[in-house]
């Protein structure tokens, strides 16, 4: 089906309308990857401004796509001189291939947009057009009501698509005068904006090339401003919740605004926001990413299940952190949902927000958005004041605290660190009464060192003990090994551990162990601590200080060999043992 | 506790047991100290490698361990030289640096992430120690 700008039959029109509706709803199902479908729509609308002369929309095989309508769309996009490459690449590349309906409707929308724009360019919005569009709206609502909200993301998307689909397929063959000018500026822009919301990363390329010349009229400027705002959240493609909140921003920006201002703000807002978001979620980024992805679909259970299988060891830190993050984000999505409703009400009343208010909103947003109170109480305490004051704040400064962006980020970082320290406190035994970061860190370091020394010790034991056993371990013993938690040597019972070295020492030929031990003893002076007797050192502090006991045990190991082996064969001791082999580094 | 068939513990046990088997297969009859030491060193490396590969590339510390082991020959010479020095100056204060040295891969992280990795590392170390103890018990029985 070749598309041309010549007059079209009403049947064709109707078919196109239906196609479009189906397509919009269909593509709403696949919005996760940031489909450029909506992006395309917006791009075409922008394209059209430049295409004033009513170019002939002949098909052109630009890419190896079977559907000729697709060629039309790419041709359209390439008309725009400014971002020729970007739009062409993105729009063509991202079109869901294999879906002819999608492509057909894309092209149809393009043609519609094309037929729209010239009149808008020339003539102001008229009440006539409004009426026409309303008729279309009704038609489309009727046809596509059956589909219902199908997208996994918020429920209003199909609605938006619906409405978006409505005015696009208006009178393609109509002459300029009679065309319904987008009631445009407000309605169409909103919806175009909403569509473009969904194409996350692709817009980033596009928006930068939007150099809007001064002589464009208000329509183009508004569109450009929409694109500029898209870039704000296009920058963080993974933060879909940000997208949702920004959409509301779009909804409130109607009528003429300066293109440059939102663009600039958008560009500086997004990197700032990005880095702050990234800084605030460095540690649990994996969980956060998954959490955000889940949240975009408003499925909290899925969020927890995705986090649940991240860590396999018990008491996973990721899960606990993720839960806390999840609670933060849940609050945000609740806020967003409320904001959705608010904004829809606003939009329906055709309210136009001012640029200043918009910028103020954004200004408030950025510093506040960086402070994500780690505790839930922070959010709850201030949530009541959120809605009336702001529309898209995600995080809030706590009561009576500085709202400087730096101090907020700092506070956030401190809270995160204290969270993790608390978790580590639970991990490290004997640290419940310890307070203070420095002491805690010392304890953690000691514990890690002791664990590493244990590994070394055990591997030494394995090296000496194992030769006696034929390793059937892979068969039966593995299960036993895994399940025997409390064997003869429990983890924290040091005295039994102390005795363990002895039997192997006596059983194995003395020649083996003792030279080894004395080699160990020779190894470094640091290991030789002044201990009166090999055992009293160990039993002096059985459980209080973990690391020193282990070190003492090693000393015992060493000194036992030294004490019991009177005649040493010193020839073996020469240079075989590098001095620092007991270092606790793998 | 319920047994997770694909848990880190299980994976580590299998890998470690396999490596031990391999190490013990070509075990010469000589029981010199040199040999013992070499075996000790290989077993220790095998233990850390098994744990790191059981954890997978998800964690920075496991990636660092595996990377280190891959470049082991180079590292060995370097580490030998630095070992003496480090042992003598063991009681250095200055916590974040110490912790960074202890946790593999901890050098190039911010503190928050370091704490995260430390927590996971501690858990895995514990598992490692426990399993190795069980093995030793089984072997010595």
Task: Write a concise keyword list for the protein shown above.
heterodimer; A: 586 residues; mainly alpha; 0% strand; B: 141 residues
Description of the structure:
The complex is a heterodimer of chains A (586) and B (141). Chain A has 26 helices and no strands. By secondary structure, chain A is mainly alpha-helical. The relative contact order of chain A is 0.06. Chain B has one domain. Chain B has helices at residues 8-25, 33-55, 60-70, 72-88, 95-102, 111-140. In chain B, α1 (8-25) runs antiparallel to α2, α1 packs across α6 and α2 (33-55) crosses α6. The two termini of chain B are 25 Å apart. Chains A and B meet through α19, α20, α21 and α24 of A and α1, α2, α3, α4 and α5 of B.
Question: What's the topology here?
Answer:
The complex is a heterodimer of chains A (586) and B (141).
Chain A: H1 10-28, H2 37-50, H3 68-79, H4 84-94, H5 100-122, H6 127-144, H7 156-167, H8 184-198, H9 202-208, H10 218-234, H11 240-252, H12 260-280, H13 285-296, H14 300-308, H15 317-348, H16 355-370, H17 376-383, H18 386-389, H19 405-427, H20 437-465, H21 473-483, H22 494-499, H23 502-507, H24 510-523, H25 534-540, H26 546-564
Chain B: H1 8-25, H2 33-55, H3 60-70, H4 72-88, H5 95-102, H6 111-140
Helix pairs in contact in B: 1-2, 1-6, 2-3, 2-6
